Amino acid sequence: MSDEKKSISLPLANPEQAANEATPEAPAEGQDVLSRIASEVGQHQVVIYMKGVPQQPMCGFSARAAAILASYGKPFHAVNILEDPEKRQGIKDFSNWPTIPQIYVGGEFLGGSDILMQMHQKGELASVIEAAFTD
In degrees rounded to 5, what are phi and psi of residue 110? Predict the structure, then answer.
């Protein structure tokens, strides 16, 4: 038996996806976290602030919310708050909502995973998302 240590290299689960993952945006000079969040919410029809990314969520609530949004076939912007501790707290201050994920549609805060699920089950979410893409 040899005392050599072996090096193991594991491939990424999906190298193409990893290469295409959005990197956290560098803060614009002089722009605070709340301004950066306001800019993201204003630039995209649907935004989810979540733990992880839709292809690899890091909590069940984020997974459920991302899956619900994906089921509508409309593009949405996902922000992985685990990559930016300042944004992780900032989004809670921005919405005055204590939990993650947080979903914004048409620039308006909808709520978290439970509210999104309720709206989806009642059939209310489809019209809200559709309206965001027709305005």
Answer: -90, -45
What is this structure's pTM?
0.78
Mean pLDDT by 10 residues, the chain (135 residues): 42 37 47 93 97 96 97 96 95 95 97 96 96 87
Distances 42 to 36, 96, 107, 109, 127 between C-alpha atoms, Å:
10, 18, 6, 11, 19
Mean pLDDT of the chain: 84
Q: Are strands 102-105 and 108-111 parallel, antiparallel or unpaired?
A: antiparallel
Torsion of CA 18, 52, 49, 128, to 10 degrees: 80
94 contacts 104 by C-beta, under 8 angstroms = no
**Three-class SS state of 58:** coil
- Name all domains of the chain by residue range, CATH numbers in brackets: 32-130 (3.40.30.10)
What residues have CB less than 8 Å from 5, skipping those under 6 apart? none
Longest dimension (CA), the chain: 69
